[in-house]
């Protein structure tokens, strides 16, 4: 078993060194892309070379499309293809490190158990990273949906008071500039920057909808673009009807989050219940044995 661990360890370490020498410089520019949560940039170049030479993206297009779609929502559309490769390369780096640690554990223990543990963790961790990525996207979409009805109410009030749609949206953004990390207002700030940069209102609004990539935002955008030229009571009524629908969806999201929070408390409560049983039952059993 020690021989197998040594062979695998040499192949992993030697393979990384060789691949880094062959194509490391070519992929270092990709490794320098700004992206949150990456910790193994220095090790990722050989993994990117493997992905490129084996043409993994063309062999598993659906898998890469889903990851790219999620990364676009979190990090924007710029360099999304390269960031997808970088994220998958990061997953491969974790698997590579865990397999190496499994080999070292096997050498220390003298049993193949360490290698098996490393291989299993090397498969589970990438799956956990993908699940975490999709969870972040889901939370981001829910944050947008929770804030959208409140912003829409403000727009309805301002438009009803005589403001134009552009000025109403700009006023809402100005009030929330301190919340620029919120996904909805981050995209709205980009939209106002586009308007100041020369984009038409329609172009800027459509780009805002594409960046959000949330169905409710698309409905909001379509409603505004179809009705804002007419103005008057028809426009206010259209936004008011949409506001009612969005408030109902906000209630559903809030209810879902509450249920998720309650389910997360089940495990700690079970653990506490077991501890209480042990603390109460142990003295009783000891007395019975006596």
Automatic annotation (TrEMBL):
Highest rank taxon of the organism: Bacteria
Membrane-spanning segments: 85-107, 113-130, 265-286
Signal sequence residues: none
Cellular-component GO terms for this entry: plasma membrane
Keyword Cell membrane: yes
InterPro entries: T2SS_GspF_dom
Keyword annotations: Cell membrane, Membrane, Transmembrane, Transmembrane helix
Residue intervals of the Type II secretion system protein GspF domain: 152-283
Membrane topology annotation: Multi-pass membrane protein
Intracellular or extracellular location(s): Cell membrane
Protein known as: Type II secretion protein F
Organism: Paenibacillus dendrobii
């Amino acid at each position: 078993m020690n021989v197998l661990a040594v062979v695998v360890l040499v192949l992993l370490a030697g393979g990384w060194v060789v691949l880094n020498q062959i194509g490391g410089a070519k992929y270092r520019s990709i490794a320098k892309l700004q992206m949150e949560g990456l910790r193994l940039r220095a090790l990722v170049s050989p993994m990117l070379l493997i992905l490129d030479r084996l043409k993994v993206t063309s062999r598993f297009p659906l898998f890469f499309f889903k990851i790219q779609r999620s990364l676009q929502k979190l990090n924007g559309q710029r360099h999304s293809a390269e960031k997808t490769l970088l994220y998958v390369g990061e997953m491969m780096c974790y698997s590579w490190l865990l397999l190496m640690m499994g080999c070292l554990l096997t050498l220390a223990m003298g049993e193949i158990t360490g290698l098996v543990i490393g291989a299993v963790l090397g498969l589970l961790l990438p799956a956990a990273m993908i699940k975490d990525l999709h969870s972040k996207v889901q939370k981001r979409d829910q944050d947008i949906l929770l804030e959208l009805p409140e912003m829409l109410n403000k727009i309805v009030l301002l438009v009803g008071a005589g403001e134009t749609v552009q000025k109403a949206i700009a006023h809402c953004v100005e009030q929330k500039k301190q919340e620029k990390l919120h996904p909805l207002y981050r995209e709205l700030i980009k939209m106002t920057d586009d308007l100041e940069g020369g984009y038409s209102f329609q172009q800027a609004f459509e780009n805002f909808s594409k960046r959000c990539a949330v169905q409710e935002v698309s409905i909001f955008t379509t409603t505004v673009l179809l009705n804002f030229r007419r103005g008057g009571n028809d426009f206010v009524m259209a936004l008011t009807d949409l506001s009612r629908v969005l408030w109902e969806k906000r209630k559903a999201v809030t209810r879902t989050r509450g249920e998720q929070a309650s389910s997360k408390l089940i495990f700690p409560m079970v653990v506490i219940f077991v501890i209480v049983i042990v603390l109460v039952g142990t003295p009783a059993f000891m007395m019975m044995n006596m």
